[in-house]
Amino acid sequence: MALLEVENLSTSFYTYAGEVQSVSGVSFHVDEGEAVGIVGESGCGKSVTVQSIMRLIPNPPGKIKNGQIRLAGRDLVRLPEKEMQKIRGKEIGMIFQDPMTSLNPVLTIGRQMTEVLQHHEGIGKNEALGRAAKYLTMVGISNPERRLKQYPHEFSGGMRQRVMIAMALLCNPKLLIADEPTTALDVTIQAQILELMKDLKDKVNTSIILITHDLGVVAGLCSRIIVMYGGKIVEMGSTQDIFKDPRHPYTWGLLKSVPRLDASKRSKLVPIVGSPPDLLNPPKGCGFAARCPHAMKICETQPPAYTDLNEKHRAACWLLHPDAPKVTFNGIDEKEARS
Amino acid sequence: MSNEVILEVNNLVKHFPINEGFLSRENKKVHAVNGISFKLHQGETLGLVGESGCGKSTAGRTIIRLYEATSGEAKFMGRNIYDLSKKEMMTVRRDMQMIFQDPYASLNPRMTVGDIIGEALDIHHLASGQKRTNRIYELLETVGLNSEHANRFPHEFSGGQRQRIGIARALAVNPKLIICDEPISALDVSIQAQIVNMLEELQEQLGLTYLFIAHDLSMVKHISHRIAVMYLGRIVEITTSQDLYDHPMHPYTQALLSAIPIPDPDVELKRSRIVLEGGVPSPIDPPSGCYFRTRCPKAQQQCAQTTPELKDCGNGHLVACHLV
Amino acid sequence: MSLPLDSFTPLQRTQKTDAINRPSTTLWQDARRRFKKNPLAMGGLIVLILICLFGFVGPFFSHFNYYSNDLSHTLNPPSWVHPFGTDELGRDILTRAMYGTQISLAIGFGSVLINLTIGIIYGGISGYVGGRIDNLMQRFIDIIFSVPDMLYVILLMVLLGSGLRNIFIVLGIEYWVTMARIVRGQILTMREQEFVLAARTLGASTPRILFKHLLPNTVGQIIVVSALQIPAAIFMEAFLSFIGLGVQPPLVSLGYMAAEGRGNIPGYAFALIFPAALIAILMLAFNFIGDGLRDAFDPKMRK
């Protein structure tokens, strides 16, 4: 069953120069207990999308222009701020990219964790501390009673991110949003956090939205992947679909521009030429047309509609139109090998 | 790639004293680089990888003499740069350049792109007037920008474009060696490939030598001929990039390789990971013996007592571990 | 939906380099735009311009001067001839206020110019050279800071004697300390920035790094601090003149006028109110402008 349904979400920022359409017409859902990855480069609208879900868009200049965000049937867009505060932290937990700045440096970890519990669940201090300790143990922090009395600076980066995860899970939220949770961490620490999240996914029945720009990170953790570009979803599907049978040229580009550690020979990388579109004046047709190696006339004039490829897999590209020339992921491989 | 050694670093050490204030007489210091040695051949790319705080950036900055070395030497084309006078150093600076990590901080926001690139020409009196302008245009085109961009300011460019401006600045003096200090880690994946390809093309065209510093092992493996892995200011393993991936010998390298996620669900779900405990110890007082022993799954008693030296395990594959 | 026949012909790409679509804006233009959007700051600026006109152009339209006595019209209340009234020597307060404004503004800008010069050089050297020299220079600043402002200024004025020139000197050497600290702080944070390192790897000399790379990037901060120091200097002058250590007659400043008016408060409060109100408006205007400039030069990058 769908826990979260986002329908036709559009969020814009109104700057002096005009309207920046950071997210336009985004629809997706997250099922219960499912981990969904949102992948895209900076400025593609992935962070704005989840900030819209959390209703954390600074207004002004930002505004949710359009659309519905339903959490277990309730529309969050039209919820009064007071109600929304009850949802944040309790029904939706969030982990941010930078564990250094998302903890208050002058309060102990215990205080910060129990505050959440006391605020949302109204339980007593001792009970709250007990629960906090339990969750710290769960995220692999030993000696939790002593740790609860410490301040954030006494924790290393990886430990802080564990604390953040424990804090986000404290009230047993239905949905956990992780916004680039490992980007600021070293690889060996990233591996620890990813292992932890994999482990937790099975232990607590929480749906996860994982935002990242690293395809490797979602590959091991998520069952479904949403690829965003220029404020729109260009392709989504099961992890298998996205990695083994991608249909959008942007997804191809993403997969080919990163070198694989397990590649045996030194092959040339295939970069995506140019830069992402300026969402102040979004292109009329497909947002990717200007950088797409297969762009056709129509791509510049009309935005492509979604083509459903299977139950879960859909992509927005004119190449999927029956009249379009046939180009596939592997097809370009061969072409490039020849040239 | 030729056999001519362009840079030879011998036992380079860089410690930073910590200023504890007026009253404290305690001499604490950050052991950023603790005696690294390697050779860099003409036309080669040597990757220097490690996690944050392992001293790789400090090593790069010391080699280009932004910092004075605490001890040890860096011989550039046969001459130890720490012995050179200011004037002699100027000629070295024309041959050795650097590309920086943060495309937002590495360009002076108050200068036009033309002046940023032209500054190198001014300092070394390489060109002036129309010749200077032409050279700036030429450099901009080399990195895929055009002459119209010369009068614009850095904040008008995207991260990838800025990084290319940084490359053009480094190229202005026609260097032989470029130290790339995490040039792609602040960029988006699709842009990273652009920069890496550009660096590879420039290497081919101009015969450049790179010291490529990064923490992203998959990108380093792609661009480098050889890789040196650093941990807490020491090189723990150094070999050709394919060999490093196929036969990693140091436990740290093994853990590092297994920690990197691979963008393929089939591979990713089947892999078993070596997950290291804890984080990197403080470089203010590093552990005794082998620095890695506190996190090493195979650590033994002798690891705490003696520091392992780099040993040749055949074919120039050097490893610093007692267990190999 | 039927599509045109050639819809699916591949596009030919000709453009190889990237184009930038947004209009070119310098940081200055950006700051100006933000400043203009700030109503308080713009109001302050307009008021300041009006006061400048009042002080520098006003005297040409006045029938009186600031020094001639007219003992037949002493302490007249405001009237059509003397809109601000006259003082105890029969001088037109409006005209005197115009000249007083001139002096006050001159002191404000003049002393800030002096402290700017000292502060930038001192702070620049201290911040860039660093180490022991920086430590010594900062301790010297600490010593100056540890003496209360007021005491220091009064002592110096007594030592040097009152008069316009000495006010410049005293205020100049009073405020450079703050400026030096700000410049030093800015330079310290910027010294390790990569663009400075880049200049060093190119072999740029110290003066070049200081004047081409470091100082231009502190200009925003310097302007903001200066804009807030001008009213402080004006206020200090007014205070000094008020206690009799400031400008000497026949010269007149707003503070001096207020001091004169103080003696006649019971019946003739206007002699105090007008100059005091002018000082207050001037201070407000400068403070609004200063705040506006601070917001305009906000280091946050453009979106």
UniProtKB/TrEMBL annotation, chain A:
<dbReference type="InterPro" id="IPR003439">
    <property type="entry name" value="ABC_transporter-like_ATP-bd"/>
</dbReference>
<dbReference type="GO" id="GO:0016887">
    <property type="term" value="F:ATP hydrolysis activity"/>
</dbReference>
<keyword id="KW-0067">ATP-binding</keyword>
<dbReference type="Pfam" id="PF08352">
    <property type="entry name" value="oligo_HPY"/>
</dbReference>
<dbReference type="GO" id="GO:0005886">
    <property type="term" value="C:plasma membrane"/>
</dbReference>
<feature type="domain" description="ABC transporter">
    <location>
        <begin position="4"/>
        <end position="255"/>
    </location>
</feature>
<dbReference type="Pfam" id="PF00005">
    <property type="entry name" value="ABC_tran"/>
</dbReference>
<dbReference type="InterPro" id="IPR050388">
    <property type="entry name" value="ABC_Ni/Peptide_Import"/>
</dbReference>
<dbReference type="InterPro" id="IPR003593">
    <property type="entry name" value="AAA+_ATPase"/>
</dbReference>
<keyword id="KW-1003">Cell membrane</keyword>
<dbReference type="InterPro" id="IPR017871">
    <property type="entry name" value="ABC_transporter-like_CS"/>
</dbReference>
<keyword id="KW-0472">Membrane</keyword>
<protein>
    <submittedName>
        <fullName>Oligopeptide transport ATP-binding protein OppD</fullName>
    </submittedName>
</protein>
<dbReference type="GO" id="GO:0005524">
    <property type="term" value="F:ATP binding"/>
</dbReference>
<comment type="similarity">
    <text>Belongs to the ABC transporter superfamily.</text>
</comment>
From TrEMBL, chain B:
<dbReference type="InterPro" id="IPR003439">
    <property type="entry name" value="ABC_transporter-like_ATP-bd"/>
</dbReference>
<dbReference type="GO" id="GO:0005524">
    <property type="term" value="F:ATP binding"/>
</dbReference>
<dbReference type="InterPro" id="IPR003593">
    <property type="entry name" value="AAA+_ATPase"/>
</dbReference>
<protein>
    <submittedName>
        <fullName>Oligopeptide transport ATP-binding protein OppF</fullName>
    </submittedName>
</protein>
<keyword id="KW-0067">ATP-binding</keyword>
<dbReference type="InterPro" id="IPR027417">
    <property type="entry name" value="P-loop_NTPase"/>
</dbReference>
<dbReference type="InterPro" id="IPR050319">
    <property type="entry name" value="ABC_transp_ATP-bind"/>
</dbReference>
<dbReference type="GO" id="GO:0055085">
    <property type="term" value="P:transmembrane transport"/>
</dbReference>
<keyword id="KW-0813">Transport</keyword>
<dbReference type="Pfam" id="PF08352">
    <property type="entry name" value="oligo_HPY"/>
</dbReference>
<comment type="similarity">
    <text>Belongs to the ABC transporter superfamily.</text>
</comment>
<dbReference type="GO" id="GO:0016887">
    <property type="term" value="F:ATP hydrolysis activity"/>
</dbReference>
<dbReference type="GO" id="GO:0015833">
    <property type="term" value="P:peptide transport"/>
</dbReference>
<dbReference type="Pfam" id="PF00005">
    <property type="entry name" value="ABC_tran"/>
</dbReference>
<dbReference type="InterPro" id="IPR017871">
    <property type="entry name" value="ABC_transporter-like_CS"/>
</dbReference>
Automatic annotation (TrEMBL), chain C:
<protein>
    <submittedName>
        <fullName>Oligopeptide transport system permease protein OppC</fullName>
    </submittedName>
</protein>
<dbReference type="GO" id="GO:0055085">
    <property type="term" value="P:transmembrane transport"/>
</dbReference>
<feature type="domain" description="ABC transmembrane type-1">
    <location>
        <begin position="101"/>
        <end position="290"/>
    </location>
</feature>
<dbReference type="InterPro" id="IPR025966">
    <property type="entry name" value="OppC_N"/>
</dbReference>
<dbReference type="Pfam" id="PF00528">
    <property type="entry name" value="BPD_transp_1"/>
</dbReference>
<feature type="transmembrane region" description="Helical">
    <location>
        <begin position="267"/>
        <end position="293"/>
    </location>
</feature>
<keyword id="KW-1003">Cell membrane</keyword>
<feature type="transmembrane region" description="Helical">
    <location>
        <begin position="103"/>
        <end position="128"/>
    </location>
</feature>
<dbReference type="Pfam" id="PF12911">
    <property type="entry name" value="OppC_N"/>
</dbReference>
<keyword id="KW-1133">Transmembrane helix</keyword>
<keyword id="KW-0812">Transmembrane</keyword>
<feature type="transmembrane region" description="Helical">
    <location>
        <begin position="222"/>
        <end position="247"/>
    </location>
</feature>
<keyword id="KW-0813">Transport</keyword>
<keyword id="KW-0472">Membrane</keyword>
<feature type="transmembrane region" description="Helical">
    <location>
        <begin position="40"/>
        <end position="61"/>
    </location>
</feature>
